[in-house]
Amino acid sequence: MKPVRIGLMGLGTVGGGTATVLLRNCEEISRRVGRRLEVVRAAARDIDQQTILDPAKVKLSDNADDVVNDPDVDIVVELIGGYSPARELVLKAIENGKHVVTANKALIAIHGTEIFKAAQAKGVIVAYEAAVAGGIPIIKAIREGLAANRIEWLAGIINGTGNFILTEMRDKGRDFNDVLKEAQELGYAEVDPTFDVEGIDAAHKLTILASLAFGIELQFDKTFTEGISKITPEDVVYAEELGYRIKHLGIARKTDKGIEMRVHPTLIPERRLIANVDGVMNAVLVKADAVGATLYYGAGAGAEPTASAVVADLVDVARAMDADQDHRVAMMGFQPEAIQDIPVLNQDDFETAYYLRLLAEDRPGVLADVTRIFAEHNISIEAVIQKEPEQGETRVPLILLTSRVIEKNMNDALGKIESLDAIEGSVTKIRMEHLS
Asked: Is 205 among the residues known to form the active site?
């Protein structure tokens, strides 16, 4: 059987890793597919600097259009990243009748609906396992492995940079800015770390996971996003004292009112396995009706972990490319005509528990005033810690854990609490999930 011919766009970290894995594991991959996977064309900005592909065997270019327009290419692999020109190149490849594999979470989260419709119309496949959680096969798990289930919720540590920062803050008592600087020096964080530390990268990924889990349209603009830059070492310590750890989670939950899609710092019980995922590692916990809870753990980034997912997609496409479209796995897990218009809830309608930190006057009656306001808003307090005042200080930190409550009710209550003369400044609010 003739080889499957591959065109690579981008030979950076992931592109170079993909080329390396394809060459090193060529025979093993061929045994699995029943035919060879061969790179026949590649494009990169600095093509003369690449040392992995043999120019005698692979046509090399600094123009990605050469890849999508090459009639000898069966599958285009987009590893450029970003929105443009990735979107235009992928749509052109589809128009030319080529299958596409991409690791571009931003592209799928923002333009996925357009891309999948174009692919459906042309009868080609778009595969994107590497777009979420690097080498962890979470997309295949949700789309295929859990196909018998109704998924109730999922929660994931899906950005390694943020997880590294929070781990260092917990283990070494370090300040956020100090750890961020080290993350940049180690190459975990970009010079502009906004996408990582403010949750945008995780929101791209959560948008994809929620669509796969619940059969809804990709709706990045409705994913609530909050970063970790305001987390203090004090909050990390207080959480530990209460038996919790702070993780930057992406959470998608189906409720009677609609679907929650939210990325934010979250207290979770330290006994949960996902609470012990440290450093730059990723993990996704999925709760489904038949199987219960399943946890997927591994490297969420890096050259070869991500390449592992890219090449796995190439294997899947190579196996399915000659099959009738009706007999392929649906690209978004559900048949296109079965995608549902389920409302996505806004922030006011989220339901969760809370960790709260207040700076209060050290005098009788203050806690009573606070608890009275909570009672008026039907908010139960589960635990309280009142710290001793520092020498010469008249205000003390007051830490409270609440039961689950609608976020609007919590915000209304906090507005009244912050107006009390005995309370200084704003109340620190971190959402809390038991994941049980």
From this structure: yes
